[in-house]
Every structure is written in structure tokens, then in C-alpha cells.
Amino acid sequence: MKRVRDYLHDIGDEATFVSAHPYSVLVELEEGAGADELAEDAEITHRLATREVQRQAVSSREAAVFPLRAPLGILEVGRASDCQLVVDHPALSKRHAKFTVVPGGVTLEDLGSTNGTYVQGRRLSPGEVARLEPESRVSFGRAAGFQYLDPTSFFHYLALLQRFGF
Q1: pLDDT tens by residue, the chain, 166 residues
Q2: E strands of 20-160, at which residues?
Q3: Which of 41, 70, 137, 143 is a Cys-bridge partner for 91, taking CB atoms 3.0 to 4.6 Å apart?
Q4: How far is CA 52 from the centre of its chain?
Q5: Helix or strand run (H / E) with residue 4
Q6: DSSP H/E element including 2
Q7: Between the CA of residue 146 and those of 14, 33, 72, 149, what are the distances in Å?
Q8: What sections of 41-150 are H helices per DSSP?
């Protein structure tokens, strides 16, 4: 598994980085920075403060990075060993959700999981497909939290870390 620190040496310029890393990624959020952090009923000032805190939380060089490379266009997430993204956490179902790489982006679908799939704090209905926007927070079962970054936003994220010495 690659970590944020593994990508920092590759930063260079944006065009070169995006050419070398043309796929979107999930960056692991620190424990507790999952779906609860962006509840829909939160006040706007709370959301802004939370975003800043979460941006700092994912700044760790040790955060895991999961590339969303899908030869068939689909990556299943769950506890099952044959899922492309295995998250060994009791809050996840064996087949929890699936990412689909589509032209110009990535979608996420809940596969009828017990504890839910969340995008920006909103629970997806079983079978509901959500198109992910760069920097979206994604959580599985309100336990495993990630930030979705497309290649360009991943470059800018790494450049920010490098600039501030993280």
C-alpha cells in the first residue's frame, strides 16, 4: 500500500505529475473524520471549520493512498478478499460499495450495505449512484473515511503539503 510520502518525491510540475498519475485516488482520513464530520444539518460555519480541520487531518505523510485504477472500470469495496479495495473493518459489509470509473470522473454506488455509504455526510440509498466531486469525503459505515481526489486535485494537495513542510 502506498502512502502520501511515496508520492511527494514525484511532484514536479502539474502536467508531468498528472501524466504519470492519470487516475483518481482515495486518501485515508484520520480516525474519526468520517461521515459524522459533515452532517447535513450542520451550520455553515461548522462546515467551514470542519473542512479546515479535515484538510489538516489528511495532511499526514503516512496517510494511505488508494489509486482508483480499474481495468474493467469497476472497483468493489468491502471486507471480502476478492474486492479490489479490501477494508478490514467490522462496519463494512463483505460487498459494501463500488466505484465506477467513467469518462471524466468516478461514481460511487452503495451495494445494499448494512451500515451505509456516505458522500459528504449524506447516506446513499441502496443502489443509488453518486458522481464524486474532487475533495469529496467518502465514508463506509461511518467508520472508514477517505477523501476523493482526481489527478489534478491530488497534485495540488501534494504541492500544498510540500510547500508547508508536511
Answers
A1: 788 988 988 788 999 999 999 999 999 886 544 444 433 333 333 343 445 444 544 447 888 898 998 766 899 999 999 998 888 888 899 999 999 998 888 999 999 999 999 999 999 999 999 999 999 999 998 676 899 999 999 999 999 888 877 6
A2: 25-28, 64-67, 74-78, 85-86, 97-102, 105-110, 117-119, 122-123, 129-131, 137-140, 144-149
A3: 143
A4: 16
A5: helix 4-8
A6: strand 2-3
A7: 23, 8, 22, 10
A8: 44-57
C-alpha cell, 16 = 508531468
Distance separating alpha carbons of residues 91 and 79, to the nearest angstrom: 9
Decide: helix, strand or coil at residue 102: strand
Q: For residue 100, give the DSSP letter.
A: E
| Measured CA distances, 127 to 17, 36, 86, 110, 138 (Å) | 34, 22, 20, 5, 16
Strand order in the sheet with 105-110: 85-86, 74-78, 97-102, 105-110, 129-131
Nine cell digits for residue 67: 489509486
Q: Which residues contact 108 (CB under 8 A, 6 or more apart)?
A: 97, 98, 99, 100, 117, 119, 124, 129, 130, 132, 138
